Amino acid sequence: MSKVFDYEEVAKHNTAESCWVILYGSVWDVTSFLPSHPGGSKIILQLAGTDATEEYDPIHPPGTLEESLPSSAKLGTIDPDTLPKTETAPADDDPTDTGPPPLEDLLNLDDIEEAATKQLSRKAWAYYFSASDDLATKSHNNTAYRQILLRPRIFRDCTHCSTATTLLGHSVNIPIYVAPAAMARLAHPDGEAGIAAACARFGAVQVVSNNASQTPEQIVAGAAEGQVFGWQLYVQTERAKSEAMLARIAKLPAYKFLVLTLDAPVPGKREHDERSKNIGANLPIRSSVQEGSASTTSPDPEAASAKEIPAPTGGVGKALFAGTAPDLTWATTLPWLEKHTTLPIVLKGIQTHEDAYIASRHPQVKAIVLSNHGGRAMDTAPPAVHTLLEIRKYCPDVFERVEVWVDGGIKRGTDVVKALCLGAKAVGVGRAALFGLGAGGQQGVERVLEILKAETETAMRLLGVERVEELGLQHINTRRVEQEIYDGPANLEGPSLWEKASTAIKAKL
Amino acid sequence: MSKVFDYEEVAKHNTAESCWVILYGSVWDVTSFLPSHPGGSKIILQLAGTDATEEYDPIHPPGTLEESLPSSAKLGTIDPDTLPKTETAPADDDPTDTGPPPLEDLLNLDDIEEAATKQLSRKAWAYYFSASDDLATKSHNNTAYRQILLRPRIFRDCTHCSTATTLLGHSVNIPIYVAPAAMARLAHPDGEAGIAAACARFGAVQVVSNNASQTPEQIVAGAAEGQVFGWQLYVQTERAKSEAMLARIAKLPAYKFLVLTLDAPVPGKREHDERSKNIGANLPIRSSVQEGSASTTSPDPEAASAKEIPAPTGGVGKALFAGTAPDLTWATTLPWLEKHTTLPIVLKGIQTHEDAYIASRHPQVKAIVLSNHGGRAMDTAPPAVHTLLEIRKYCPDVFERVEVWVDGGIKRGTDVVKALCLGAKAVGVGRAALFGLGAGGQQGVERVLEILKAETETAMRLLGVERVEELGLQHINTRRVEQEIYDGPANLEGPSLWEKASTAIKAKL
Amino acid sequence: MSKVFDYEEVAKHNTAESCWVILYGSVWDVTSFLPSHPGGSKIILQLAGTDATEEYDPIHPPGTLEESLPSSAKLGTIDPDTLPKTETAPADDDPTDTGPPPLEDLLNLDDIEEAATKQLSRKAWAYYFSASDDLATKSHNNTAYRQILLRPRIFRDCTHCSTATTLLGHSVNIPIYVAPAAMARLAHPDGEAGIAAACARFGAVQVVSNNASQTPEQIVAGAAEGQVFGWQLYVQTERAKSEAMLARIAKLPAYKFLVLTLDAPVPGKREHDERSKNIGANLPIRSSVQEGSASTTSPDPEAASAKEIPAPTGGVGKALFAGTAPDLTWATTLPWLEKHTTLPIVLKGIQTHEDAYIASRHPQVKAIVLSNHGGRAMDTAPPAVHTLLEIRKYCPDVFERVEVWVDGGIKRGTDVVKALCLGAKAVGVGRAALFGLGAGGQQGVERVLEILKAETETAMRLLGVERVEELGLQHINTRRVEQEIYDGPANLEGPSLWEKASTAIKAKL
Amino acid sequence: MSKVFDYEEVAKHNTAESCWVILYGSVWDVTSFLPSHPGGSKIILQLAGTDATEEYDPIHPPGTLEESLPSSAKLGTIDPDTLPKTETAPADDDPTDTGPPPLEDLLNLDDIEEAATKQLSRKAWAYYFSASDDLATKSHNNTAYRQILLRPRIFRDCTHCSTATTLLGHSVNIPIYVAPAAMARLAHPDGEAGIAAACARFGAVQVVSNNASQTPEQIVAGAAEGQVFGWQLYVQTERAKSEAMLARIAKLPAYKFLVLTLDAPVPGKREHDERSKNIGANLPIRSSVQEGSASTTSPDPEAASAKEIPAPTGGVGKALFAGTAPDLTWATTLPWLEKHTTLPIVLKGIQTHEDAYIASRHPQVKAIVLSNHGGRAMDTAPPAVHTLLEIRKYCPDVFERVEVWVDGGIKRGTDVVKALCLGAKAVGVGRAALFGLGAGGQQGVERVLEILKAETETAMRLLGVERVEELGLQHINTRRVEQEIYDGPANLEGPSLWEKASTAIKAKL
Fold it and tell me: SUPFAM superfamilies of this UniProt entry (chains A, B, C, D) (predicted)?
């Protein structure tokens, strides 16, 4: 029988010499673990002597404690009556608020975000909302859609309308998927499994984040018959860990494809996230997909976060980058990956026509995702709309060779339709799903999908289109965006890099 | 002699089991009618046990009650002394307001809208003001005019200036008509007949909405000698109803042409309207032009409104769409229509040069209206200015084959003049007329027409133009807009749809 | 000896039956004059029974009373002790203001306007500030300059810099002139003569408004040796009046040229001005240059103001337009004018290259002024910068045939320099001079000229230019504006009007 | 032993007849010096009878007093207990502020500026912040970078990343240098030497201002081994002074090159600076690099400030311009300079491709700096991004003949990378360094460099680039800016000036 502690006793052990924390009602002595904590000892010490459950829970998947600490570290249980009262301050703390509005009153994705902003903790909000530098690309991702006009046709029978399509050969009900975004439980206890349940209801694909806050097994445990999942992969510097994860995913048939994320080999600079660090947003976390206590990831929805400004010596920054491999190349990574998986490969993070071209010449690549990481990697990177138009301009056969997916900036069904008109096979929503989760758990995600589906159908009907395959360039006016698309002839430096690259590739093929 | 009820008694019958309402001083038992109410029972139940006259009156034309309910449902009359006092809250409820300003102090259409906003109920305002999604097209409709510059000429004798012109062969005093907009009595008791009286005074054409809040007969009852009306037609799924309406209109010689509305086969998503639903804006209504109690329309100024996000099962949404036919086509609808009317046909809702081209090849079409439904159907649809320029660019002979009218975004006489310079024969104002009605009834509509006429004359004089026929491309600079017009060569999908369509048409002719 | 009245006695005569007013300390019975007052009786009746001096004085030149009324109408004098105290509310009535700042603290023309706004009466401010409709052209006049970039050169000896140039053969010290703007005494008692004194100090040309608030003789009475004035002419419907005025000007050798204003044959719609009507801004006025009591002008700085929305019958509007001739033409007006003056003729109000071309083919025209009447005539008319570029594009030899002056939107010396680079020989400032007058009388106007001259010199030096003649297209980058210039080929209506016109002209020559 | 004065005694000597001031605890009689003070006597008289140390110190380098006054003028010392308490009001005086935030919490250059704004005196802030006229060019300098998009590449090994490069043959660790900006001690006592220490830590070049607030010797006294400095030169009207300075610099081997500033032959009009004159910002100053008491410069970071609006007679303005030579030319200045220095020459202030072309044809010119003086000279001058693109368009071989540096508008590492992609060899930061100094002295400057270096590395890695030499046009999309670049064919004035100039030059070579 375990010993019962008073909070007053625990509170005394708040130093590096003797560091106790309360987790899920138990008292743990983590003193010996301090030096090996992936995110450094400082973060634990900030919580030393307190109940750290609230901070710990949403960012550590089940089993983390047991994997990391010997059973002897569990000293006993806490007397709950001795715990101080806690207060949680939501991001938008308006005393006149009287709880969240009913989901049915949230009419669009902005409403959803607003409602979630009032529900989420400040740190979760900062984590989801943030993007690089001045948020120029995050904003441009959306405004690029708004610059495109739609061309409604008349006298078209729009009695019937279907958003059904196929992705990598799998039938789906909507051309909208949930993009990989980390740590869903920061938003709501329903977590990634809640997103999965919502996707099941709408026949939508879900790409699970490499840094999910639930295990890959938990997320697909309740999957519907035929429900399709993708698994997002960040290649680890220690390739063996990535290989082990690939083996683990191989045992879960719900995962139908791999999404290799390439748009954040190093973290962007997300200042909203940075500024909330004192309230915990930057707590390095133990993702569900890491094997062993030494691996480290951070609370980026997709990639490893990091202290943005490494000290000139580079010490701290280097430590935090540990884990995610920055050395991927066309020549080495895809061959390695093929050895360890039989799943179709999707490359995420294409931002130029050159890379789209090269990818389309690699037979093992079945789809590419035009993405700038939701504006969280390079600020002033082009929005997916630009890359779609660039591919159209320079190498349109890419659309015939691989499926082209896009993410970033989708807020309306008209945005979905515009992407499809430009050649996209599917559009991903990341923040919207997380804000849906924040606004109402699984039901909130369903509301997001319901809104987007209905808006997409209305737009299709008004265009006089019955099936998504019919959508094409004749339905849109892109004049305003075309004037801003990369224009090769301005490149005066000789043959562009992609030409050299494609020559090399062709030589290989 | 009818029984007299106390309000307290009526108030008890507020359930689906026993549902009474007070209408025009009478007490009705509508329990048996609940299942067949076009808008569903819920809306009636919200008013169960109360005096529903204020909500009912402005959106149901005379005769609706008698058509829908047996005389036995009329239980008696209410003792007016027992009624509770009611309060009406205008849209802009500023306690410092001291009533509306004199109409002569309203100098432009923005002033008119501002004054109306203070007079209208919140639900009427939301209904008139709203447009789809983010209001991008509603705004663009106006800003597209402002991007065009006028080119005043000197040394022109501008002693005389006439805005007179002809529409479909009928002489009119101004090239401005009142576009079809539903439910005028929401704005003011003068209703559509008040608009008619104002039009008479200015020699302007009025196109009466399919969903008017007065009967077609009432509206033209006081028509002036030679006054010209058009009738707007939404084709009903039950064609027989539309045919009956055509027969009814045929008996009213004031109606000189038919306007077939095509730009809203399904309703757009109007969130301002949605958000006011709890105060009644979305009450499904019994329009004056529907035959029989089963038909349903809704309070869209032009088309059927609907709950925007159909439940995934589609049940509610489908029910609300009922009535307006979504299956119109070039091949079937025009031949059918010709069988049932001898009036000239105007097609409203053209938004591409392709559809303008096709329409101009149908001999029975005498005019087309370039319209995006006031921004209420597809958001990010092109403004009429774009479509005018598109036609000029691709198929300018359209202007010689049919009259081209435009609506949407007109706020100034300079806007009117610009549309005419681009080839429009007339411009329609919808919201402006309704806001005029809201600001001052018939006199408010007159003020709108007076302002636009005077501004148009001033602009013509400063251009050195005496008659509207003289206005042409030499009077405007459209460089800024031209750069945003749809540009065919971007269509990489093979021959454009209109080419195929026109080939098919030509084969027929 | 005249009778002395108490204010109480005068105050009783406040009706159309007996209407007295106090003017300059005298009591006048104006009852019999009411029907013939140019602006209608209503305006006088608003002041009936009161001391109207403050409203009357700034807008009636000396001699008006005596011309209009018989001496018997002067009943006597007022006992000043019986007058009520008056309050004047400035346009920007901030109780924390402690008087105007010293002129030397006003660093730019915005400062000057801000200071003047606090000094001027609301009605004077509205009158000067207002422009047509939405003020789009007033704003564009300035932003068009800001869209042009300057191209500073290095290693140029800028020890010396001279802004001197010639206008119509007369030497001037700066290429900046004061444009004709009416009723300067509304701003300050120094009036037009104060502007003249300021111009003398800076060697600047002044074009005196047709509707000046001082007589032509008064204005030039203190002229410096060699000081150059122009006289602005609005042709009156009664040509004899204009002819008399030309004869009067001919006797004043300081007036070296005539400026025939053509950009406002009818008044624009200036709503700021309209809205201040209740406080007197629209008082029809007795301009110094009208002969006889029947002529009417209004307080437009340049042209006749009018109630913007004529009643449908047109009665009131027509009455107010009376006076200024709307029937000027190339064929009739210039020949008539040549008969009645020997002065060089300047045509003001050119807004298209067509009219510039035609004007340049008329040998009696020595200069043209590209002007849209300060944005007060046609809203969305092109700024002078556009017309300059249009002429460069279509008919650059205009610059060799006539002097091209511009006005509108000048706020900085860089604006002056840009206009000169584009080919302008001089730039006019209208509102700036009036605001200078409002901010500090003659010294305020001097401050305006001092600022513009210094800024112009700085800009010239930084461009490496010593004399204004050296300024050219190589010193500016107009890419952003060029994209918005009228583009002939868009004119699909056959040969443009100017071609026809020039053919006709050439046939004559 | 010196006499000790009470403050009360000193305070009596506050007139032109007897003028004492306290400086560094000593009491000086400066009565006889009043007429010869470079900035005029008025400025001293404002401080007469007070402790002027605070105003005097940051803008006068050591030795100034001793040079200017005889030792007899030092009357004695002040009894410090008698001095009144002083208060200093920072620029942004928010009583809720609780001191500056830790430097590590300042995440970007905007944060740095905000923190500095709260630390700096109003006059120092105005002096650093100000730019010409409407600040259009200051703003454009930055927004031009934001209009350029970056093109991240995938599958690039970004393990290694180096910002090292060479400038004029000298190895540096970052392609960012501190641009010459005057009077650093206004911001912080660390002054220019503090900037030098920060540069040493980051391996950055510092260009020392001609108007530094420390002597050239002091600034390089603590230089690190191999640290590189440049010396900014304004040529004085009295060439002998400039020659003496060149001789002095020649003795300090840390100065490796000369930067001849050409973009401000006359001062721009900086109104923020003007408006703060009453609190001392415009105090004419005794720069460290002037020899003898008669020379005058002013507190422009780079050039001589001046009363912007010279009196019409030009007297005051002329006096203040004294010192800096406005008569530099290609033909005379470079040959003269070559006689007096052996250092490589850098020309600063190129704003057109013509001048870049000419400079590149002068063999003694080793680098050019595209600069508009931080927007402080000509307003609406082009940003460096424009000039880079202009050179690319007209005469790209300039990049092969000379090093091209840029300054102005740099706020982000992405801005740095964009400039390098366009061909710049290095980018300078002026205000950022001064605001860093203001925010935290030497450490603040280090923070600025740390942020820019880290952001630059992140941007390089996301582009897939390891060394700065690899950056090229293929990494950027400049479509939006290209549309605004000067376009030769618009020059209709015959052969452009640069052609003539280059012909002349070629003839010489």
Answer: Cytochrome b5-like heme/steroid binding domain (SSF55856), FMN-linked oxidoreductases (SSF51395)
